Amino acid sequence: MKPFRKLDSATAPDGTLLTLFEHDGAFVIRVNGIELMSTRRHHSEDALAELVCAPLREQVDVRALIGGLGLGFTLKAALRLLPLDARVVVAELVPPVIAWNRNPAYGLAHDALNDPRVELFEGDVTDALRQNPAAFDAIMMDVDNGADAFTTASNAWLYQHAGVTLAIAALRERGRLAYWSADDDRHFATMLRHAGLDVTTNRVRAHATTGPTHTLLVAQRRATEEVAGGVRRATADGQGVRRSTTRALE
Question: What is the pTM for the complete model shown?
Answer without folding.
Answer: 0.85
